[in-house]
Amino acid sequence: MFYCLLLLCSQLVLSVALPFEQKAFWDFTMDNDMGGQGMMNDEEGSAFEPTKPTERPVGPTCPFGCQCHLRVVQCSDLGLSAVPKNIPSDTLLLDLQNNKITELKENDFAGLHNLYALVLVNNKISKVHSKAFSPMHKLQKLYFSKNMLTEIPKNFPPSLVELRIHDNQIKKVHKGAFSGMGTMNCIEMGGNPLENSGFAPGAFDGLKLSYLRISEAKLTGVPKDLPSSLTELHLDHNQIQAIELEDLIRYKNLNRLGLGYNHIRMIENGSLAYVPNLRELHLDNNRLSLVPAGLPDMKYLQVIYLHSNNITKVGVNAFCPTGFGIKRAYYNGISLFSNPVNYWEVQPATFRCVTDRFAIQFGNYKK
Predict the structure, then answer these.
(1) Does 235 have pLDDT greater than 50?
(2) What is d(CA 40, CA 259) in angstroms, rounded to the nearest whole number?
(3) Residue-wise pLDDT tens digits, 50-63
(4) Which residues are registered as beta bridge partners of 232?
(5) CA 128/CA 190 separation, integer angstroms
(6) Cα(233)–Cα(339) distance, rounded to whole angstroms?
(7) What is the pTM of this model?
């Protein structure tokens, strides 16, 4: 029995580990990461001496407070007063919205040659250096809304296809504002105090544009010399008084025209003939007393909004042609509610070129 106890005690003594003595920070990683190499070497009788750690390779850094993931750098809602430094050069999307940035300087975006989208919404930017966008050779989307710009910034990248610059303080669009741009899909510039006189002749020269919106401005008429390539034009929530014969002469490619929430009392006969490809026309919330002339000749028109006007009479040929084979697309939406005309006074044949009765929005006029 004594022999057994002695043997057990000797095993316990041998099994007790020596006190740990830290020599360097990397000692904490030795036990698990080195596969037991930090333990005593039975053959040599000496402890493993850790090698000096090698320097880690330097990779892209992320600006302080920002989040960087999959080439997206998100620096929104940080109270920044300037564009942060050390933005990774491979960034594709840079989000700087909801900050307090007041100026874009020449080298703020230096090295960002691959940037695809830049978000600057809701800052206090009033000044942009003429070379601020120069490094961004691949920029396609620029969101500049809700700032304090008083003019269109200069020298946009030729690669840009979408520009949203609404809700600023822009009063003038200077000549050649979009020179060198080539082709763009969309420009949204509503919510600026733009008057008709604010568009300099040649402001859109050379630009091939599909979609343009100038809503909630101070326009009293359709601006002149907009890009003739437009397929959508939205001028709602302005102070336009009338549509004159030459207002739409440049825009034969228009598919959608938005003129709602204006003060339009008259559309001159023949004006709509210049937009033969129109498919959707918004004239709601104006002051029209008659259905515009020329609608029966519009072969492709499918939707027309005329509600909330002063229309008192709707003729039997107000919408549909009298002959056959002229109208190529039937209406699938006609709104006439909130007008001082009784629906029972309108002849059913008035809507003979409408897809079905559910496409007609009519109702009693209540003052």
Answers:
(1) yes
(2) 85
(3) 445 444 445 568 99
(4) 211, 256
(5) 20
(6) 25
(7) 0.81
d(CA 315, CA 247): 26
Helix boundaries (H) for 34-142: none
Distances (CA, A) of 102 to 22, 105, 125, 147: 51, 10, 4, 9
Query: 62-141 is classed in which CATH architecture?
Result: Alpha-Beta Horseshoe (3.80)
Q: Helix, strand, or coil here: 33?
A: helix
> 20: how many CB neighbours lie within 10 A of its CB?
9
**Sign of the torsion formed by the C-alpha atoms of 195, 201, 207 and 208:** positive
Are 97 and 119 contacting, i.e. CB atoms less than 8 angstroms apart? yes
Q: How confident is the model at residue 19 (pLDDT cuts 50, 70, 90)?
A: very low
Q: Find, among 106, 121, 248, 99, the residue nearest to 188 by Cα.
A: 121
Residue 274 main-chain phi, psi, to 5 deg: -80, -5
Run of H or E residues at 213: strand 208-213
Say how far apart CA 185 and CA 210 lie, in whole Å: 5
133: left (phi over 0), alpha (psi -120 to 50) or beta: alpha
How many angstroms separate the CA atoms of 300 and 272, rounded? 12
Q: At 263, is the secondary structure helix, strand, or coil?
A: coil
The H or E element spanning position 188 is strand 183-188
Alpha helices in the chain (DSSP H): 2-15, 30-33
Query: Positive or negative CA dihedral for 58, 63, 66, 72?
Result: negative
Please state, rounded to an integer, the average pLDDT across all residues of the chain.
Answer: 86
